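Students often ask why inverse folding is considered easier than folding. One informal answer: many sequences map to the same fold, so there is more than one right answer. In these notes we will look at a single instance of the problem. The structure comes first.
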């Protein structure tokens, strides 16, 4: 997400780096490029105008910092203004003490309301709440069935007494059903249209009056671009929503809707759908999203995802193994399986500062990860714990067991050795102390600290399965040319047998 905007802004900042004091002309040239980058990202032109004016006022004025050079100062100002555009502060759901608390979803047809309802129900259930999904989209074919399927997948009951009729009556009756089931939260999925029209707005307003929701969330497709402002204003006038859900954010390389809606409506973005899977649904944090746009990564979200998967005992045990260089293939397999629970590997690595851009053209194939798992699972417990005993005969047995070639087994072992070296670096005192101090830090400080954890070297992508020996620069002091690793599929010459005399 935001790839096109991030690339354009990175090019602008590159022109500022290494300069002394910036002249007004140089600042104006940079602001012109920023303006074009935002417009090309489909950000509303009024939002762009106000955004650039604020940056100009701060950059050309007397605002300076002894700790930052002029180029860094521009990046700092842009980051702070991006945070302001995106809503300044995180805005969690306000469910209050009422039971059941009603959340109503509104938006155009195709914006992703029904899927967002399922994802939100899963998130609330994970937080210990008992939600009830209510099917009030009685116009779109199969909408009720879609919600039923989503309810089954996330383990949440669905109230769908009819597939046609009056959605206002269904919404009103759902409150009694929630009390009967003991559900503390009711999520109402409403109908939409392909365009804003009076009938749709009237229906949404009547449903809202019937259930008196504590939260009304406007769901908008992140790929809608400039039209986001018009649609958002129409829904704000009709139902006066309390927050925004950005859907399909993973499919938008520009990000214009995200940078327009909060600024124009004054309502916070509360959630973002960052993938097709039901668990790819995140609370929206303006400061973290601004960091992603500017290539600073999102380490705090990565830490939170890890905390959802790892227990404290598991984390402490792995930390001890890293420090003592006792990271085995058995641990490697367990880590890969745990990481897959956290989400797609490309998305996770992209949250590390500098890594997302380096991985942009790298294909992280989940199928290759499964192949690695198959190879390790074909080994005995002793071989996983002590890979050094894997001689030629054992490697052939492992290869036969998983349907791979001995060369692929050798390649995995090489990658594992490189991974262990890298993990040992990340597990050193410097890395651990950096991780402990990350909470509450400014994203720019986070990016600077993370870039130094590996001692200024590069992240060898050959250490990850399926990366083909590519080397990505991580941090300002990274060294080493791209593609510096050995090609993954390089054949190992066969050893010639000596003839007996």
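Output (designed amino acids):
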């Amino acid at each position: 997400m935001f790839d096109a905007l991030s690339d354009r802004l990175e090019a602008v900042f590159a022109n500022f780096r290494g300069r002394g004091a910036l002249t007004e002309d140089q600042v104006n040239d940079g602001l012109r490029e920023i303006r074009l980058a935002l417009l090309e990202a489909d950000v509303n032109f009024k939002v762009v105008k106000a955004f650039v004016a604020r940056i100009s006022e701060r950059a050309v004025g007397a605002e300076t910092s002894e700790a930052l050079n002029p180029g860094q100062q521009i990046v700092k100002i842009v980051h702070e203004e991006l945070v302001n555009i995106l809503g300044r502060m995180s805005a969690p759901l306000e469910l209050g003490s009422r039971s059941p608390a009603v959340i109503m979803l509104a938006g155009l047809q195709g914006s992703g309301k029904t899927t967002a309802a399922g994802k939100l129900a899963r998130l609330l259930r994970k937080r210990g709440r008992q939600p009830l999904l209510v099917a009030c989209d009685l116009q779109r074919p199969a909408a009720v069935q879609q919600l039923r399927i989503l309810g089954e997948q996330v383990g949440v009951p669905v109230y769908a007494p009819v597939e046609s009729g009056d959605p206002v009556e269904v919404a009103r009756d759902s409150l009694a059903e929630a009390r009967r089931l003991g559900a503390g939260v009711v999520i109402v999925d409403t109908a939409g249209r392909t365009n804003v029209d009076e009938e749709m707005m009237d229906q949404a307003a009547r449903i809202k009056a019937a259930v008196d929701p504590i939260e009304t969330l406007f769901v908008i497709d992140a790929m809608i671009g400039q039209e986001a402002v018009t649609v958002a204003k129409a829904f704000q006038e009709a139902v006066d929503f309390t927050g925004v859900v950005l859907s399909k954010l993973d499919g938008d390389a520009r990000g214009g809707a995200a940078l327009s809606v909060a600024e124009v409506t004054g309502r916070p973005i509360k959630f973002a759908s960052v993938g097709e899977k039901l668990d790819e649904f995140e609370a929206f944090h303006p400061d973290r999203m601004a960091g992603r746009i500017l290539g600073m990564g999102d380490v705090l979200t990565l830490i939170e995802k890890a905390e959802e998967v790892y227990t404290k005992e598991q984390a402490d045990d792995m930390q001890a193994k890293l420090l003592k260089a006792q990271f085995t293939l058995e641990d490697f397999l367990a880590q890969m399986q745990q990481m897959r629970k956290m989400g797609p590997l490309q998305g996770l690595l992209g949250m590390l500062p500098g890594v997302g851009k380096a991985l942009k053209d790298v294909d992280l194939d989940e199928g290759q990860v499964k192949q690695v798992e198959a190879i390790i699972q074909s080994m005995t417990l002793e071989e996983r714990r002590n890979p050094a005993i894997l001689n030629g005969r054992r490697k052939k047995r492992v290869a036969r067991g998983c349907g791979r070639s001995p060369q692929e087994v050798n390649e995995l072992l090489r990658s594992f050795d490189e991974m262990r070296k890298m993990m040992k670096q990340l597990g050193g005192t410097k890395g651990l102390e950096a991780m402990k101090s990350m909470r509450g830090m400014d994203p720019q400080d986070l990016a600077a600290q993370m870039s130094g954890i590996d001692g200024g070297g590069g992240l060898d992508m050959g250490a990850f399965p399926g990366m083909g020996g590519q080397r990505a620069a991580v941090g300002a002091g990274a060294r080493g040319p791209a593609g510096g690793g050995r090609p993954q599929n390089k054949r190992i010459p066969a050893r010639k047998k000596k003839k007996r005399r």
